[in-house]
Every structure is written in C-alpha cells, then in structure tokens.
Design a protein that fits this description.
Helix content: 40-55%
Structural class: alpha/beta
CATH class: Alpha Beta
CATH superfamily: Divalent-metal-dependent TIM barrel enzymes
Number of helices: 9
CATH architecture: Alpha-Beta Barrel
Shape: globular
Mean pLDDT: 97
Strand content: 15-25%
Low-confidence stretches: none
Largest sheet: 8 strands, parallel
Amino acid sequence: MRYGLNQSGFPADDLAETCSILAAAGYDGIEPNVERDGQLTTESGRQEVAGIVDAHDLTVPAISTISHWEYPLSSADEVRRRIGVEIARDMIDAAAALDAEDVLIVPAVVDDGASYDADYERAVQSVRELAGYAADRGVAVAVENVQNNFLPSPDEFAAFLDDVEDAGPIGAYVDVGNALRSGLPSRWLRTLDDRISKIHVKDWLVDHHRVTYPPQGDVDWARVLDAVDAIEYDGWITAEVPPYPSFPERMPADVLDTMRFLFEDGGDRR
C-alpha cells in the first residue's frame, strides 16, 4: 500500500510546510485540489507545485476538486455544466503535469425536483468527453461515490461505469466513509473489485451525520479489510479527513499510523 492525504486535511496553508509535515510523518503522496482559476490551472503554477512536491520526495497519485458541487457535470444549465467540464480539463492537465495517475470526478449532483434520468444522461456525456481528453494525456478518470443523490448503490455505480468505460480509461474511486451513507462499504468494494482505481478513507458517525477519523465512527473496518484482501487491492489509500481544530500538524501522523495499523497489520483482527 501507499498512503496519501487529500487537501481537505492539509495541516498548513503553505504547500511547502504541508509537504514537510507529511514527508516527516512518512506519507508517500498528496492529493491536491484544483480550484477555478487557481494555482494548478496555469503552467507556471503546476511547475511550482511539482517542484515543491518533488523536493520533499512525495508524489501526486490523483487530483481532486470541490468545484463540481458548484458547477455539476450533470447541470441542466449548459453554461454551468461547461464550466464544470473546463474545471475537469484543468484537473487533467494538472494531473499530466504532476505525473498523477487519476483525476477524481464527481459525475453529478442531483437536487430535489430534478429529472434523474436527464441528470444521468448529462453526467454520461460529460464523463465520456473527459475520459477521451484524459486518455490523450495519459491520465485516467476515477469516478467517486459521494453524497450527491446519484448512483446510491454499487450496482448502479457499476452500470454507470459500463456506460462510459469505452470512452477512455475510467475506474472507481471508492470512498469508504461515503459508502456507509448509502449501504455497506464492504459491498461497494467487493462489487467494484478490479474496477477500483483508488480508495479514500474516512469514518462516518451515523447518528451525528458527520465525518470522523478512522476507526472512530460506524464503519465496520474488519469487514472493509476483509473485502480489501478479497479483491487483492494493494494500491493507494488516501485519507480525506479534516485537520485537527488545535495542533493540526499532529493529525497527519496520527491518521497515517491508523491507516498502517488497519491496512498493514489488518487491525489485528484475526
């Protein structure tokens, strides 16, 4: 396994300081976010980020964004949808520049009163376009399960992948904590199996409806680990958790220690 931290948990605003903390803790990589008109949308910005990451002997396994909540790839507003597509293209360009394998894509955001079928078709259209663009740049699209009222089961998720996979390299970015919101994380893992590109880890408190750190929530980690073993997954495990409110620089090492305990020691569950 290799271990990364998503930007949502970066302990410092300064990237060099964050990379220094993560490298000292023993991380293998970071997962930065692309923001509209942000640093990773320009060639000079991408080169600067690459230099900082390389200087700390880290890698970038994937590129993510939070902008597809504001500009959904399924939007009925064509202007907003096209902005979402352009943001994803920036993600792909950043991934190519940083030698990242994947871009994390939220394929849709479905609101009350929307036509699910129409949103589905627009999501398929957008993801297929992006898969072709990514393929030309040596990057893969990794579709993530999120709380977006879309593809709530692993079977529906797999069917969506069936509808887009011939357009280019496409896989699943399975988020263990998100999977608990709509089902069983172990079933998501077993169903998607070798279609899984990457795994996000967080935990989820059902009664409080919020994210927490693994294994402090309601995820059945023993079953998750059994599923990971069953599908023989040995790729990237990236934490997507918030920094501590106080002493945020301590969170990355704590979470990495937990990830190693779970995925290398098997949580001492056997």
